[in-house]
Task: structure prediction
Amino acid sequence: MSTLEPPLALLAELTHRCPLQCPYCSNPLELDRASGELDTANWIRVLAEAAAIGILQVHFSGGEPTARKDLPAIVRAAAESGLYSNLITSGVLLDERSLATLVEAGLDHAQLSFQDVEPANADRIGGFKGGHRRKLEVARLIKAAGLPLTLNFVVHRQNLERLPQMIALGLDFGAQRIEIAHVQYYGWGLVNRDALLPSRVQLDAATEEVETARLRLKGRLVIDYVVPDYYAARPKACMGGWARRFINITPAGLALPCHAAQSLPGFDFPSVRTHSLADIWQSSPAFLRFRGTEWMAEPCRSCERREIDWGGCRCQAFALTGDAARTDPACALSPDHGVMEAAVAARGGEPPPFRYRRIGAVETA
Amino acid sequence: MNAGLNAAVAPALAPGVKLRFDKVREGWVLLAPERLFVIDEQALDILKLVDGARTLKVIIDDLAERFDAPRDLIETDVVAMLRDLADRGAITL
Result:
């Protein structure tokens, strides 16, 4: 048995409040209410615990993390604990002054999301009028504040053909990094799958565009690219493996091995209000459940890739097969792989309307 | 020579990239936006000289003298490492 490595990164979901309503949001269908959010003092304590157990980077996300008035105090605590801090933001609540406060507090990097490059479509996807124009301004402000900037584009069938312009926008803003992430189809993304899933032709054109741009922009712009599982032959190593690298903390203070883990039944996730991060990482049953390879059944158990992809995504396995311990259906060796092909075949010629991410607005299947 | 790298270039850590000692793992890491690189001793010797002021030539001369090693060998290693980190966005050249 190998010794347990410390986690590398903390995903701190400070709030589920957000002015945007993107139909592929990574938050759970059932959103945490503002009244139950972890307070400033608890976040500051958790950040110190995180650094002490070996976490090196903290990603402040949400919802929209800048919706929290105490964000500067939380960022400062991260910096004082020696954590590298990253703000994952829609940007629409930021201005010159709030950015200056965050930089002064020690923020290391900002990742700014865009929904499209075409303003009307961007605002339609985000469900927030005037959002795109605001983001363009905030990208300039982030650079002017001296913060390193990553642009993030979540891509799907309704914006993918503008990928070259997305990369060009990153260059225009002097971003060092651009993340082109296909929608991942769990939670809200799964609810909106038919409206978002690209065709094989769209996907292949996008992948080729990224590969060409990477060569052309080598040394100038790093392009990270995340593909959708539905056309894959092998699953991705979701979160680098269950409870191997990350701890995610929900706005209410529950510690999860991944941000979607609350979609899985039969778990009692530990709260950072009552458990230390060290205990959670080392011995919480929820973190032990799918860590490593012991839990695997065939075809994963004897697969030579079992420590490469770690069986893929547990949440996707559950969402598509009803059993979180099965092989991720993204794998061509999975007996359930046909559900992926069926979803592609069921994808209509015209995308259906979005079901926007709203508190209390979704019907559960 | 130098695989296209100019000896007068002064490599620097890219904006937002930090070299830091990790007390828990007892090793050096390069922390970068949404990624990190574990640094071995040889890479650390090079990175400690990367400050945006020292030129490639100065860095290579320094290491060749300090380790009493053939300059060509040092140069090959230094250029390969810096170029790799530059391609991954951690260094500017």
In short: The radius of gyration of chain A is 20 Å.
